[in-house]
Write a structure and sequence with these properties.
The protein has about 210 residues and is an all-alpha fold. It is built from six helices and no strands. Helix 1 runs parallel beside helix 6 and helix 5 runs antiparallel to helix 6. The longest helix is centred in the first third of the chain and has 38 residues. The N and C termini lie far apart (about 40 Å). The N terminus is likely disordered.
Length: about 210
């Protein structure tokens, strides 16, 4: 019950963040200003260190851009394309496998598991997705800075923190399966579904951000 209530709360919060996700930001300038202020306060404590880290890599991308090695289109949409690929392949397949385990099909071997059971493949695929999301997130910050945009000041940053946080929780929960029993497994199932929702919300806010400049 608590897991389901958590998902309901998360869905409402994501709904608020992604409202009008594909509408021109000029139409909602006042709401955007208020939203940015909230997001800046949320990341105030880490923005300085993160900006310092981003500054290490930005000059290399700027040089590549000036040399014509990195086209503007690639700098603008490359991160989004790569992360969408991870979500629509590893993320979706991993979530599907999680529900197959839940439904009692965890010992099945399919064309998606490459000779392993679904139960064995599921954590590997989701672990790989988390790795690529963490790596790609850093690239997204660098590419945003390379294009002269501020980092950590958009709903995209908020949904990124939310989705990554949920994935880390998901990675930890299996350690409690033996002691936690049904409760831990239920939480893993429903929070996993909420994580997928958060990731698609993140994709929506990313598209909105990309269309805003």
């Amino acid at each position: 019950m608590m897991a389901r209530l958590s998902i309901l709360f998360l869905s409402c919060m994501i709904g608020v963040m992604t409202t009008n996700a594909f509408v021109s930001p000029n139409t909602f300038s006042k709401k955007r200003a208020s939203s940015i202020a909230m997001e800046m306060s949320a990341f105030d404590g880490i923005k300085g260190p993160v900006q310092s880290y981003v500054n290490i890599w930005t000059p290399m991308f700027q040089q590549a851009k000036e040399a014509g090695l990195a086209p503007d289109f690639l700098l603008h949409w490359g991160h989004g394309g790569a992360m969408a690929t991870v979500l629509l392949t590893m993320g979706v397949i991993g979530a599907y496998m999680g529900w197959q385990i839940r439904l009692g099909n965890g010992n099945d071997i399919t064309s998606l598991t490459l000779g392993e059971t679904i139960r064995e493949a599921h954590p590997k695929i989701m672990g790989g997705a988390l790795f690529f999301f963490l790596l790609g997130g850093q690239g997204g910050l660098v590419l945003l800075d390379t294009q002269g945009q501020s980092i950590l000041e958009s709903p995209h940053a908020v949904t990124a923190a939310l989705a990554i946080g949920l994935m880390i929780v998901q990675a930890i929960l299996p350690r409690f399966f033996e002691k936690g029993g049904t409760l831990a497994r239920d939480a893993h199932t429903y929070i996993g579904s909420a994580t997928v929702v958060a990731l698609f919300a993140h994709m929506a806010t990313g598209i909105k951000l990309g269309l805003s400049f």
